[in-house]
Automatic annotation (TrEMBL):
The keyword Metal-binding applies. PANTHER family: PHOSPHOTRIESTERASE-RELATED, PHOSPHOTRIESTERASE-RELATED PROTEIN. InterPro entries: Metal_Hydrolase (IPR032466), Phosphotriesterase (IPR001559). It comes from Pricia antarctica. Keywords: Hydrolase, Metal-binding. The modification N6-carboxylysine is found at K256. Gene3D superfamilies: Metal-dependent hydrolases. This is Phosphotriesterase-related protein. Pfam families: PTE. GO terms for molecular function: hydrolase activity; zinc ion binding. Binds 2 divalent metal cations per subunit.
Length: 428
């Protein structure tokens, strides 16, 4: 609006000066009486009136074009300004507490404020600037208890775990990996204290999550969640974001949820997703949701996002590689959702090349996330690898017409944008 006023003022001054400089009574053959009556009729702006009456088509055309260009410029400026604002430190916006911050969604409807700077992301070693994420694997498990009984704290043999995981991650680091998003939730084997020690030993940034894992026949959902409200569950997750996880100062960098494969979403699945929505609205954390090929889970989530006026870019379609209908993937990507093709292994490289080509043709590579869904210590078993992207897929991409910039887009720019803490409302 401010720029629009500047434009209008500029146009007015231009009109005024051009009229004043070029239009005289002689020019337009008015006699003095006509001129005086014209001044009376047009108040304080007689020269503009004269200017318009004289039908100077070229000048009017020039002014109109100027107005159009300035309007386009203003709209562009506004967009740039909005993007810059979203990148600004939330704490400084807090201090200013400007109406623009509310419009941009920094403050959720309930009046709470996002305490973490928007340009930062929480790692297990503390917040970093999001630009420091670098090459990121967005869906891996450093370790998990998958297959074992539900366990809030997860008792790993830490010596065995470190002996297995640390050399592997050090090797990944040498392949260029800077950051790993660990998708093991609480009750599923999440141990942030161990993640922190592994991160310190390997120099790989690890981002942990808040949320519950609702796949595997709901086996890893804690009993109390069935009787609790979505709000009560989200309060626990928001508390982890604000105060740290399990007595540590380690905070989550995203929300992890899961729907069971091959069955309609259950009440508990939907409730956990609603709790995820409330958590997003209070923290700006992105929702990474194991959805796979479950079309009903997909539709249910899209409806709940819509009902809560949340933009699809707040949501990552985890295990989207399992969904066979390319049209649906492309459609969701075009709407802004993140498509996580997170099952790369040596046997499916050609299928990944085919899909990535399709997204490239449709100019949607900027919505793709790549990962392996690997596991460094799956219930104490041998490593399920997470290095094929670097050893197999990327070389194959380069021989199939993908550029270094395409790869940088998928492994660096996309994670940075997908996990940027921001409350993403539909009207942003
Ligand atoms: Zn996983």
């Amino acid at each position: 609006m401010r720029q629009f006023l500047y434009c209008s003022l500029l146009l007015f001054v231009l009109s005024w000066s051009s009229g004043e400089a070029k239009v005289t009574i002689e020019d337009i053959h008015l006699d003095k009486l006509e001129y005086i009556s014209l001044i009376k009729r047009s108040g304080n702006y007689p020269l503009i009136q004269i200017y318009l009456m004289k039908y100077r088509p070229t000048t009017i055309l020039f002014s109109s074009m100027l107005l159009v260009f300035l309007s386009i410029g203003c709209r562009f400026d506004k967009k740039m300004e909005s993007a810059e604002n979203q990148m600004r430190d939330a704490t400084s916006i807090d201090r200013e507490y400007s109406p623009e911050a509310i419009i941009l969604g920094f403050f959720p409807p309930d009046g709470t404020r996002n305490p973490t700077a928007l340009s930062q992301i929480n790692t297990v070693k503390g917040p970093i600037d999001i630009s420091e994420l670098g090459v990121s694997l967005t869906h891996e498990h450093i370790m998990s208890n998958y297959g074992k009984e539900i366990n809030k704290t997860s008792n790993y043999d830490s010596v065995q775990l470190f002996n297995q995981v640390i050399p592997y991650l050090k090797n990944l680091k040498s392949l260029g990996v800077n950051s790993i998003f660990d998708c093991t939730t609480e009750y599923f084997g999440r141990r942030v204290d161990l993640l922190k020690r592994i991160s310190e030993a390997t120099d790989i940034q690890i981002i942990t999550n808040t949320g519950f894992y609702g796949a595997a026949d709901d086996r890893y959902i804690p009993e109390f969640a069935y009787g609790a409200s979505a709000k009560a569950i989200s309060d626990l997750w928001i508390d982890e974001f604000k105060n740290g996880i399990q007595g540590t100062d380690i905070k989550p960098g995203f929300i992890k949820l899961a729907f069971d494969d091959g069955k309609p979403p259950s009440d508990i699945d939907k409730k956990l997703f609603e709790a995820g929505i409330l958590t997003h609205l209070n923290t700006g954390l992105t929702l990474a949701v194991h959805t796979g090929s479950n079309r009903e889970a997909l539709e249910s989530q899209m409806q709940l996002l819509k009902d809560n006026d949340i933009h699809p870019s707040a949501w990552i379609w985890t295990h989207a590689n399992k969904f066979k209908d390319d049209i649906v993937l492309l459609d969701l990507a075009a709407k802004g959702a993140w498509i996580s093709l997170d099952g790369v292994n040596q046997s499916n490289i050609s299928e990944y090349i085919r899909r990535l080509n399709l997204f490239k043709q449709k100019k949607l590579l900027h919505k793709i996330l790549l990962s392996h869904d690997g596991n460094g210590f799956p219930s104490g078993d041998p490593i399920r690898g997470f290095e094929v992207i670097f050893k197999g897929l990327i070389p194959e991409m380069l021989t199939n017409g993908f550029t270094e910039d395409d790869i940088h887009q998928i492994l660096v720019r996309n994670p940075k944008e997908a996990f940027q803490m921001r409350i993403r409302k539909n009207d942003d």
